[in-house]
Every structure is written in structure tokens, then in C-alpha cells.
Amino acid sequence: MQADTSIDNNEKSLQEMLSHSSDFKSSDFTSGDRHYRLFYLDTMIEQAAVQDHIIRPLLNHSNSSIREAVTVLECIETELLSDASQALIKGKTVVQIESEAKLYILGTELRKERAVNIPINERVLRGSNEALIENLDTNINLLRKQIASSDLVVKSYHLGRRSNTRISVLYLDSLANEEVVKEFDRRIRSADIDYVEAPGFLSELIQDQRFSLFPQILVTERPDRVKSYLMGGKIAILTDGSPDCLILPVSFWAFFQSPDDYQINWLLGSTFRFLRMICFIIGISLPGFYVALVTFDPRILPFEIVQTIQSSMQYTALPPVLEAIIMLLVLEILREASVRLASPIAQTIGIVGGIVIGTIVVQSNLISTMTVVVTALTGIASFIIPSYEMSSAARILPYPIIIMSSFLGLLGLEISFLALLTHLARINTMGIPYFYSGLSLNTIKDTFFRAPLLSLNKRPKEGLPKDEKRLRVRRGRNE
Q: Within 13 Å and on the Cβ side, how many CA atoms surround 402?
């Protein structure tokens, strides 16, 4: 819709476009022979900026154009009321001169944001203590400080018919694979949705397998981790209003990596990474393994252990499969309660609830002591996984494995693992196999374990980088 030369007509049209919102305001003043009217949302503007950088300069420079007089950095001319209404929603001020059909959009946004703080979900012993926040511009600023290179590309999108959420995609032009960038661009442009709540909505819109428990997009709140993945040829996705960054494409092994692995000796880093993978296997298979042994195959265990298990189960009323499922559900309830409640209460619920429930169910002969031990080990094993998304998958997988083991014993456990591996092998992330880098001889040095830095002379293949060479000089010798 074109702007009118009448200020009053434009004001009425803008009021209709903004659904007659009560925070839509206008202000008139005259400078010389010109009559100005300002349109703005008083809940979205910095009033001191409007007064000092727009009104006062226009009063003092009555013969100058608006672009020459105002002292704000952003000044855009338009003749469309639709552009003006969108600008008002974002906190900008629109200025019109009487009898002119031209509108001036001036940047006067009110910026209220929390300070850059330490990471909450991805704490490390060594490394950066900065975390992303909800402001998109601040997050881009943090990453540009980390990567002081003209090669860093920032592309902006607007997603959501009603929310009009701003999304920025970052990648290094000389490293990121063009096909991956084009595929992401195609998927994000084809998404037609009312609003976007990142990162959950966004990841579901662009991921390949929508019915898989396993995460196919890495979520992080650490700028230094985003930098490391950008240096590997991957792309990062930031959303306005979210402190999380999405990284793709990633492999299964990326969810077991931690920034700590690269800040300590490579032997220690490799040990801790291997421990995380072992704990993942324990977390998904230990309850099913216990049910299979107790129900079908107790003879493969040493006689002393069998006696201990039988003595703990002698007076219990429930079968092992129900014991395992009930205790895992109780563990999940305690875990969710500790997350949703306030921090001091959550700690009390976690400690007291665990002790009281564990003691009562054993003393009442509802659950055997061995089942309590197995459940506790399963819960602790899932805590060590650094990725919340992968940890959540490890919390759900034990249930179908327990059911299969209760029907077929160890054979059911083997079938479950075979089905799990088959599913993982069929998953793609942006068209790249989920196990891609783990099965490559060149990049296996940074999957199951972390090899010495001098051996990591090539970038991971999971991102399909243009330039695979990462280290070209080793202790003074050209590679």
C-alpha cells in the first residue's frame, strides 16, 4: 500500500495495520516551514534517542533533509506503508513531512537484554566462560570477535508468517560445502509456519529423520564451540530470542565430544570420551541386560552373584521387568521434578526423594535391591553424556530394550542392538550419513578417541569441507 501525502490518512492506515494497538503513538512538531509527524510504538522505542537524535536535530536544521539532519545510523526511505508498519513493530520510528508521500524509517529500538554470562548447560573446567544470549546481534558480535575473518558469511532469513522471526546462518565461505548451504537454504525457504520457537521448531523443520529419537542437529550455547565447528566447514544457525545455536551437519560422534577434550592432554581427553561412549551403552542396555539375565539366563553369571541376586529377589512381589520399568519411571519423575522446581527445592527433592523412595520400595519388598542398584547406575551413566539431546535419547531407549529382553532374553537384547545400529546407519543429516566420519580411517582419530593435535591435520569429513587440510606445518616441517 502506497503512502499518502496526507499525514492523517497515513496515520489511520497505520493504526488499522497495527490493529489499533494502544501503544501506537504519533507526535507533531514544526521546524521552519516544515511540519513533521513521528509514528512509533512507545513500548518499543528508546525515547531519549528519539528526542536527542531525531527531534532536536530536525529543530536545529530546518533547511536540511531528514537524512542529513538526524544523527541515527539507520535511515531508510520508503513509500510503502507495509514497510513502515513492519518497522514500527521492530521498534523503529517513522517520520513524515506534511504534503510528501515519502516515509523515513529511523533506528530507535529499545534494547533490553541480559548480560553475557557463563554457560549453564555446557560448563567446562578450562576454556571460555562466555555463553550466547537471546539477542541475535549480540550473538553475532560474539562470534565475529572469535573469528576475525572477512571469510565469515552471515545470511539473514525471516521465518514465520505471524512471528516474522529473524534467523541468521553463519559459515566460512572458503570451507562450507556449497551443496549443504544450498540444501539448507531450500529447506528453510520451503518452511511455511505461523511462528518459530527455536531451537525445537527449527530443528524439526530442517532435519531429515523426523521420527528418530536421535538428535541430528547439535545444539550449543558456547561461542567457542560454534567457532570450532565453523572452522570444520559446518554451518551455524542463530535465532533471535534464543540463546542456543544449531550446528549442522553433524555425526553421531559429535554428541560425545566436549570442549574439555581439547584443553587437556590427548590421553586424558581420549579416555574421557571413550568413557562417555561406554556409559551411553550402559545407560541404554544395562536394565535390559539385567532383566534378560534374571529372567532367562542366570547360569552365565558366577554362582556367588546369582546367589546375591536370588536373595534380593526372594520376597519381592513384582517380576523383574516391572521392577526395572517402575524404577526407571520413578527416576525420570525425580529428574523432571528437580528440573522444574526452584533450585534449592530441587536439590532437596532429588536427595530426599531418592533416599526415601529407594529405602521404602526395598523395605516393603516391592523392588529388589539389585534393581535399585541397576537403575542408579543407568541414571548416572546417562548424566555423563555432554549433549542434552543425546542424553534424552539414552533415557528413552532402555524401555523397548527391556521389553524385548523380557520376551527373548539375551537374544532380544541382541536384536534390539541390531535394530538400533540399522536405524543409526540409515539416518542422514543434510544428506550426509550419520556414521560417516566414524567409519572413515582419516577421521576416526577424532571420534572414538582424540588423537594428538599434530595428528589431526585434516578436518572432519562429516561437514564435507572444501579445504580438508587443517594443519600444514608440523614442528617446523611443511606438510
A: 27
- DSSP conformation class of 109: B
Distance CA 79, CA 2 (A): 6
In terms of domains, do 398 and 319 share one?
A: yes
Cell numbers 536384536 correspond to 415
Within-domain flag for 398: yes
Q: How far apart are CA 276 and CA 402, in angstroms?
A: 22
Angle subtended by helix axes 398-408 and 320-340, to nearest 10 = 170
Domain match, 269 and 355 both? yes
Tell me the three state secondary structure of residue 87: helix
- Indicate the pTM of the whole model: 0.84
Question: How many CB atoms sit inside 10 A of residue 73's CB?
Answer: 8
Residue 382 is assigned to a structural domain of this protein: yes
Out of 86, 106, 126, pick the residue that ends a domain: 106
Q: Is residue 206 one of the residues assigned to a domain?
A: yes
Nearest Cα neighbor of 334 from 315, 311, 361, 309 is: 361
**Cell numbers standing for residue 429:** 543429516
Give residue 184's domain range.
Answer: 136-250
273 and 407 fall within a common domain: yes
**Which tens digits make up the pLDDT trace of 116-127?**
888 888 888 777
The three grid cell numbers given for residue 242, joined into one nine-digit string: 534464543
| CA geometry: angle 320, 399, 299, nearest 5 deg | 40
The pLDDT tens digits of the residues spanning 13-28 come to: 999 999 888 999 999 9
User: Of all helices (H) and strands (E), which one includes residue 38?
Assistant: strand 34-41
User: Quick one: which H or E segment has residue 69?
Assistant: helix 66-69
DSSP state of 153: E
Q: N- to C-terminal Cα distance for the chain? A: 62
153 and 203 co-located in one domain: yes
